[in-house]
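In response to a reviewer's request, we include the raw inputs and outputs for one of the modeled complexes. The two entities were modeled together in a single run.
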Amino acid sequence: MLTGSSLDLITAFLGFIFTLMILSYLIGDNPLFRLAIYIFVGVSAGYAASVAWQNILWPKLFQPLMLGNTQDRMLLLVPLVLGLLLFAKLSPRSARLGNPAMAFLVGTGAAVAIGGAVLGTIFPQTLATINLFDTSAGGSLVERLLESSIFLVGTISTLVYFHFGARATVTGPQRSRLVNGMGWVGKFFIATTFGVLFAGAYAAAITALIERMFSLWIFLTSFL
Amino acid sequence: MAEIRCPMCGKSASDELEICPSCQARLKPLGSLSNIDEKSIHAGEAPVRKDEMEPGQEVPPKSDSPQEEPIRPGVAPTKKNTAELEFALPNWLRKLRGQPESNQPPVEEPAQAPIEESLPDVADEMEPASTPAEEAPDLLSGLEQTSREEDQAPSWLSNIKPSAKKEEPPANVPIEDGNWLNNLRGDSPGQVLEPDSLKPEPLQEEPVFEQGVPDWMKKLQAEVDSQAPASKSVEEDQTETVEEGSKEESPDWLIQLQAETQAYSAAADDAPSGQGEEAPNWLGKLGPETPATVEASGLPAEGSETPDWLKNLQAETQSFASEEPSSETESPDWLKEAGLEAQASADGEVASGTESETPDWLKNAQAEMQAFTSEEGSSETKSPDWLKEPGSETQVSANEDTVPGTGSDAPDWLKNAQVEMQAFATEESASELESSEELKESGLETPVFAEDSSASEAVLETPDWLKNLQADPHGLTGVEAAVPREMPDWLKNLGSQDILPPEGENELPGTPGESEEVRSVPTTSEPGMSEQTAPMDLEPDWLSNLKAEGEIAQQEAGASSQPALSEDVPESELVPDWLKNIDKTDTISSGTPALLMDEPVPDEVASQELLPAEMPDWLSSMKPDGTISQMETEKSEADSPDGLIQPAELPSWVQAMRPVESMIAEVGIPDGSTEQATEKAGPLAGLRGVLPATPGLGKLRKPLNYSIKLRVTEDQNQQAAQLEQMLEVETQSKPVATSGKELPKRILRWVVALLLILAVGLPAFSGMQITPPPSLYPPELMAAREIMFGLPANSAVLLVFDYEPAYSGELEVTAAPLVDNLLYSGARLAIVSTSPTGPALAEHFLKTTQSQHNYLSGQQYANLGYLAGGASGVLSFALNPSQTIPQAIDGGSPWQTPLLQDIRTLADFKVVIVLTDNADTARIWVEQTGAILGQTPLLMAISAQAEPMIRPYYDSQQIKGLVTGLAGGKAYEQALQLSGLGQLYWDSYSLGLFVAECIIIFGSLWSLISVWRNRKSAHEEEV
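The model returned the following structure tokens for the whole complex.
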């Protein structure tokens, strides 16, 4: 039986190998890279399926059906049937059978998402943007006005940038100068946001690279 | 041995054989050529009709022309010599055609005239039936055949007689055109063939008359014979009355006429040689027109000073003035023509006395008249008394003995007249004997006046149509009816002055002899005799025209053909009964056809008038060929048992009417019902069996004209041009962008990767600290630190591990100081994840980063595992965490343990910390748990890439604190005065960011330089 250290060694070795295989992409698309991708995808899917079975299906469906009382069994027949109907989506001829279960999932998910978006994002974010001009909130007034002004301009200009309405002119459809100016400002804010996102992605990636470099180094240095 | 070829099978066979050994077809015709010659058709001879094919007789072979083949488009119809079709003609037509050839030259008719065009005009051509007598051709030729074959005549022709009798004579020559022509004429049996158009022979009238003496005529003659003495006495009385009347009651016009005659005689004395030529027309006409008076006057030839004939003429004129009403008014016009013959005899008689001074023709006429007068006495002994009537004088005078009196230099008309006289006398003598015997047998009393008696018989025995004609409501009565419409002027004057009585008067003034005669009629005849004479007076003009035409035909026929006809053909077979009556009356009456002598009708003109103007060529060109034997005729009839001409013998003009091959192929051969369909429109209306004008095609309609020009507006043109331009742009191939060389890109990629690896690895491999720790702490970090520091000990904290394994290095560095701070407080941890890999990452996180805390599952923390359902699962878990995930991944029930025992909702946790690298996941937790958390702070340890999307929630205070990325973790460690992974990675992170910033800057500069160089090069090229 493998001990913890052996498992750690194997895990570290596998980590080292797969890390090199992924880094092999520097020389281009190669089988090692693809193999590592396939392994990760497969392992992730297998792990997800096992987790779903172990954490969802068995403890919440099949175990009550097999060991639970009649009431629980009768109630669990509904999710069981709907779950089985989802397998009908595998075949185009029987795909219609899975529509009710899919409709139930999408309907409930959409309802939850919309409710959460309205109550958890739109209203709070709108209110937060308005509250930026609340002088009573504390802090420097100039700072707040500047910050709030940037937020206001950034928000409006970004929304105006996505306004694609135009007026028909002799030279063709053309937006008004105000819209064009606000759009250009909004484009600036959007570009800044993309830059921030890229920086965050780059920071996350460079952190992962650092972690991998350290793991490789640790693995290599563990044998030294 | 000579061989012949079988006409049927084409095989050779001996000429001695009569039947083909192969096909059993007859090789030789039944009749020989010698028989054919012997049996050639003669004019006036009745052909023998055969309706059945002789036994064993074969159908003669068809001609070489492909007659059964349909006419192809563009192929002209075969021109056929239709003369060979003579044998195919019906008997009546062959006979009809045979007569004119023997009597007159062939008449050329307009060729290629379709019969269909001529038939509809039959009704129009019937109008000329009332043409003057001098223009009417001989229509009586062949009437004996007609009457004899009355039953054989087509029904349409027999039915047409009553309808046409009012205005014109009936068709004297019924055309038995056979079934094919009957079919062609369809169901119009009542049609009348116009006499003018259907009578091809104006000659041979006299023999026909002589031969066709009907029974009633014979009876009439018998009656006349019985009353001959009575009539003779009446005649003598009339003659005396005329003489007296001529002297005493002669009208002025007659006196003037005498004066003129005398003057003329004086002039003739002065110029005797030119008498004939210099005689006035009226006199020339008058002379022949007064034959009856020659006998009535009985004056001998006068002295040399005045020619005898002229003296006689004067006497005749005087007697004629008194007698004319009886001869002209009481006799039909055609009977007047008989006067022509008598005139000839009278002229001859007169000429005998003036032989030296008169021309030859006149001399001959005089001699003839003398012979006539000398014969008169003897003839009276032979002939019955009725022939001694004034009107019958010419009959008696026409004796064979008088024929030699006609000199060779006599004019033709005179010769013909003599010949007619001669032939007539021969026939008359025979008929008289018969009639006298019949009369004796019958014992009937006939009126003294022979004409009236004969007329009465004619009324009794004439056909119905003729009776109707006589009973014409518009018919004239008495003398008025006897006057022809186109009577010569002199005759009109004659009748208008003295002869014509006022209507309604029974007595005729001015003519003592005639008046006596007329008055004697009621005395000698039965009551109503005057009424019976009316039909004779009402005899239509056409009948007189026929007679006149017969006279002309006889003159032109010559004397050669007459004896043969009169001898060969029996009378009863040739002349119908009603026509025999006409003949007798004709011979009795003294007509006035003198005009015919001056205006002889040419044969050609007469035939053209008789024949249809548009008779087809085949019919016009068909000539009675004497060489064609009767055997061939019989054979042809045998070939067509039904009397039909076989379709193969269609003439060219019929072929032209046949449908072409394309039409036949399209329509097909019509059945018998359609063939017999009657044409209802067009020039062929009323005909049956004609070829349909539009067989099976119905009414053709002209196709509509559709314009091929596209009608487009200017806008449409512009739009089309724009569309064309767009398509043209799309169809143009775009140049493929030349990609850069792979090697520089790959090298660049390697260089960047190497720089990053060196920047990240160099601090890690070297262990050096090249970047200082951050001195500024972000506010969100400080808020999170405040919350963490504000947590009570042993608080229930919910840790949500919602990040992927790829970002585990970043999040572990980010969340490790925060969780370490939490664990330092002894918090009870409940771990849940919306990602399947979250529970494993949580275990790994606790074991690697929080290993110093020795947290045990089920005691310090509970790994609830995977939270399924996304937002729904988060909401459900927020509302009821214990029911959503009742068990931990290890199988325990943390909700019943002290670890999570007090947790009912999400708000029961002291703090909720979400570790995520995904902004959406963070948003779901914020959105779904915001209303449930209440006062429970929501902290997040997020990846640096999710910070731009999650930071607004921090600004909105929906998230109470944030720890973002490695920098946030390093800052949080620095705030806790800890040294962890943040410190370890910080140099690498800082150097890596620096290299990245350098690369971005360098790349931006390289890009700017490249653009500048391109523009510069472009500018240099422009310059």
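As requested, we also summarize the result in words. Chain A touches chain B at residues 26-28, 44, 47-48, 51-52, 54-56, 59, 108-109, 112-113, 116-117, 119-121, 124-125, 127-128, 193, 196-197, 199-204, 206-214, 217 (CB under 8 Å). The longest helix of chain A spans residues 177-222.
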